[in-house]
Amino acid sequence: AQKITQTQPGMFVQEKEAVTLDCTYDTSDPSYGLFWYKQPSSGEMIFLIYQGSYDQQNATEGRYSLNFQKARKSANLVISASQLGDSAMYFCAMSDTNAGKSTFGDGTTLTVKP
Amino acid sequence: ETGVTQTPRHLVMGMTNKKSLKCEQHLGHNAMYWYKQSAKKPLELMFVYNFKEQTENNSVPSRFSPECPNSSHLFLHLHTLQPEDSALYLCASSQEPQGASYGYTFGSGTRLTVV
Fold first, then answer.
1. pLDDT tens digits, chain A, 114 residues: what are they?
2. A36, A62, A66, B37: which could form a disulfide with A48 (CB 3.0–4.6 Å)?
3. Do A101 and B56 make contact, defined as CB atoms within 8 angstroms?
4. Do B55 and A101 touch (CB under 8 A)?
């Protein structure tokens, strides 16, 4: 069975600073995908970044990067140069490409301070 | 319209009512999903449709009945709900099953309150 763990219920960061949101996962499948989503207070979940289990390089999308450490089973999200609009709930998720199931973590609430 | 559109945004219903949630996507995606998001609980996958065929029913009670008439539309029919069914119901779509590489595109959700 897949499991996603996000140990930080809430995080604070000063505007323009970088922040790391932690995510660890557990799976016995060799092929899987890891995702991060952002959920503002409006409710819509927004896809941010994807990392495949066989990808050699860490994924990057603009100010978002995924620090993928396969041996430690961690997939931390790094947001550089935080903006006030980054305040939201962030979810780490895993997709098992073989069995076709997706699992989400409990989420981390990020608050960016001016 | 682009993206995934869910209606209504908010719904209050009694336990004996029958209502339906609607989801529509104009992205050309082949897979659509219903998720339930309750307070203090992780997202729960409810149903998955690939090419209009249901491929996943995650032990959802029969008072929730999905319908996928075509690859662009997904409904969730509700009847005889319980107060614990109050939650945010999110619809999502993906280009391939489980959003293997491209992730999901989510709608804004329907905030359901059962009274």
1. 789 999 999 999 999 999 999 999 998 888 888 999 999 988 888 989 999 998 889 999 999 999 999 999 999 999 999 999 999 999 999 987 655 567 899 999 999 999
2. A36
3. yes
4. no
